[in-house]
């Protein structure tokens, strides 16, 4: 029996039968073939930052951390192949040394690159997609033990599925990323009223490279955060001076270090529905949950994409995330706000708390059936489909 495994927040705990740390692709193939022959479930896991039960299994939990942490620049400009288990923070430093950078990053950098892309991790900025949109190629071991290359040149029709796959198409061993030359950003933080923030939100989103805001229910105020290249800051800012200012390489200025642990529910809302949805969320929290909510609500934007299981598929998106300290109850609070998110055609973040099953998810993802057909083709024996994932992906 393996040891107990816990996710980052501590809200997900289970004990797999085996905890495996393969050192190369041949090791991964052997694990998949053994699982298939013994009808054992197998789940790949990155850094464990997600709080949804995507990796929970009583079978074999396969850590990507032991795979080679290679970062290899390719001959084609701005492409690099990286090991699946490389943490984003480590990846940022390695790319920086090679003169490259990711176009955008999320709010934290502890995830593995494979885990972050497989769950739709995103940053903010209406011109930028989630991290999966930066994937130009995937190499994985399918449920039959086959090594499959997917890129613009090999099996290109599979790339919209493989970029964000929840780990159910295979165990990813390497990813090829489309990158930018290194760049520096200036981060500025302001405190403001919720009224001013909402009144100027469209301008702030349009004029800043990256912009998001936290709303604090206890005080009904906001913290606005912007990131821009030097000399490109817009004129629209709160009246006060920024609380903090920081300038540096993008991979060091975009993510934030998090000491306190929390659980989170986040839904991607069509941008045109954001104001109505946020207004209802705000009133519901103030009326019902203000006394018990110790954390904040985070609002970000994301560009539309063509990735089949991306929450941003086919539409410009604004995301609303409700956070709660991991030492406090969140179930009633999250269930209440989730009901509002669903009224506005919201799609849940795959790596965060939500209650949806395949029946509800099929109705909000236009390419749902195509993804399921590919999943069955690459994993005919459902080696990667645990009971949790069956509820999430298998309708009926």
Write the layout of secondary structure elements.
Elements: E1 5-6, E2 13-14, E3 18-20, H1 25-37, E4 42-45, E5 60-63, E6 71-73, E7 79-83, H2 88-97, E8 100-101, H3 113-118, E9 135-141, E10 147-151, H4 159-162, E11 171-178, E12 180-181, E13 184-193, H5 194-199, H6 201-207, E14 210-216, E15 221-228, E16 244-249, H7 250-253, E17 262-270, H8 274-289, E18 297-302, E19 317-325, H9 331-343, E20 347-348, H10 358-362, H11 368-378, H12 387-393
Parallel strand pairs: 3-5, 4-5
Antiparallel strand pairs: 1-2, 6-7, 7-11, 8-12, 9-10, 9-11, 13-15, 13-16, 14-15, 14-18, 17-19, 17-20, 18-19
Helix pairs in contact: 8-9
CA radius of gyration is 21 Å
Q: Proportion of β residues? A: 25-35%
CATH class of the domain at 184-348: Alpha Beta
Q: Which structural class fits the helix and strand makeup?
A: alpha+beta
Spatial strand order of the main sheet: 16-13-15-14-18-19-17-20
Protein name: Oxidoreductase
Domain FAD-binding PCMH-type: 12-182
Region (Disordered): 228-252
Keywords: Oxidoreductase
